[in-house]
Amino acid sequence: MLENCKSAKERWGGVNEIIDRWLEERQAMLVQYCALSGLDQDLSDLQRGEKLRSFCQILVDYVSAGHFEVYDQLIKEGREFDDAEALQEASKLYDTIDTTTERLLDFNDKYLETDDVSSLSSDLSLLGEALEVRFSTEDRLISVLHTSHKDLVS
Fold first, then answer.
1. Quick one: DSSP state of residue 7?
2. Of 90, 93, 103, 64, residue with least CA distance to 146
3. 12, 63, 78, 86 — which has fewest CB within 10 A?
4. What's the rounded Cα separation, in Å, for the pair 78 and 94?
5. For residues 134-149, b (16+ Cβ closer than 10 Å) or e, as one string?
6. How many CA atoms lie within 13 A of 82 on its CB side?
7. Which residues in 8-129 belong to E strands, given as ranges?
8. What is the longest distance spanned by two Cα atoms in the chain?
9. From CA 34, how far away is CA 125, in angstroms rounded?
10. pTM above 0.85, yes or no
11. How many helices (H) and strands (E) would you count in the chain?
12. Mean pLDDT for the chain?
């Protein structure tokens, strides 16, 4: 899609849209996470399970979009601007993101395979810690590989 754009502004300005859409998805996921964390204990197991499945779906969608759309575009941008320093830092940041990906997908896998929500509160707490690390790392990745080039795109 973006490879067909002619100018840097056309090409890398489009990354803004991808990032914006992805960050909106992050916000929606965070809202569901907060709602799930504060679930009323009076909810039926069926209602709790529906909310949990909905959250897991947006969680996996968010993780997938990052790995298969956003990060690729950011790396391409760093390469296009021949930003070796940014690409080196991005490699380290990606390692951190990869670690959180495992934790997020483990949470998803666990709750897809069971109806037992007895450890949900503690699992959500651990998940929240992983999300916090991931969000700050992703924000740094965006800063290093995209925001730092915005003046070159104009």
1. S
2. 90
3. 63
4. 14
5. beebbebbbebbbebb
6. 0
7. none
8. 57
9. 11
10. no
11. 6, 0
12. 84
